[in-house]
Amino acid sequence: MTFDLITMGRVGMDLFSEQVGAAFEQIESFSTSVGGSPTNVAIGSSRLGLKTAVLTGVGQDKVADFVRTYLEKEGVDTRFVFTKESGRTGLAVVGVQPPSTFPLTFYRENPADIFVDIDDVLQVPIEETRVLLLSGTALARGACRDATFFAAERAAAQGVKVLIDLDLRPDQWHDSRAYGVNLRALLPLVDTVIGTEEESYAALLDNPNDAASTVIQDLNEGQKEELETHLPSYLTASSHPSTWILKRGAQGVTIFEKDSDPVNVSGFSVEVVNTVGAGDAFASGLCYGYIQGWPWAKTARFANACGALVVSRHGCASAMPSLSEVQSLLEQG
User: I want to staple 58 with a disulfide (CB 3.0 to 4.6 A). Which of 15, 64, 282, 313 is the partner?
Assistant: First the structure.
């Protein structure tokens, strides 16, 4: 295989506040890195030793030059970072006020990555990768929605494993009800789903018939029980996906597999510096263990360690751990 992992979806430049703890209006300076969930996963997986590439779009601007240079330094193949005449490269500005406040502002007015299309996918040797990782946000608008479905179909036809990070960003959707509608249409082409409790609930149990429907930010206990009851029956009733990785914050993760009892995998207790990027680090670790052929419980424990390390650091892509760092944390228990 040419690649272990190809990720597909949004990309941009990240500006992280250098004044940890400062209110957003008091920020004086920013550090720069590359962002966008699937692109972060490609970087994190590369740092773990995987051969990665990213399928995305950038504008005809200097930010695009920054993105390509950053990815190349991280060992991520940039052949499929396509330049688009429409739109500019995205930007995100992040405040850092631990332990629980991390204001994030996206500048994504017609970002270039939503213009990735089917012709772009045809230039990518999807059959030469072990895993294709998709992103829920890529379904929100633009040609990238059709391109994502097409890439998933190509991967499934070639026997390539398809993972999706639900990656719900409500402000990127014109209608919150469209999120579940689109995800449910794509899931039959997916092998493994990665998502938080709120993302999973929105993907499977939202009510498009309710004109007042909105994405629930914090599930109550009844909704959590409803989700945990629904997931096993959903997996049993469908041919795909076969595995659902449910992220539960400080409680770790629960692994749901078709016709199997759920398995809980504990997380790590660390001091929180920045939660932005923890989910991307988790997905990187999950891809790594999956590609090694590890059991899901071992893979999830490894992924939890990746997320814990990023939570304890400043930054996102720049904070992704190396393989030796993850192994050291695992050895410490």
Answer: 64
Q: Domains in the chain, please, with CATH?
A: 3-324 (3.40.1190.20)
CA nearest neighbour of 194 among 74, 78, 17, 38: 38
**Averaged pLDDT, 276-302:** 97
Indicate the length of the chain as a whole number. Answer: 333
Report if pTM > 0.90.
yes
Kind plus residue range of the DSSP H or E element containing 8: strand 3-8
Among candidates 241, 242, 240, 246, which has minimal Cα distance to 257?
242
In this structure, the number of other CB atoms found within 10 A of the CB of residue 295 comes to: 11
CA distances to 95, 127, 301, 319 from 315, in Å: 10, 33, 22, 5
Range of 94-103, 199-208, 279-288 with top mean pLDDT:
279-288
pLDDT at 211 over 70: no
Cα(303)–Cα(265) distance, integer angstroms: 10
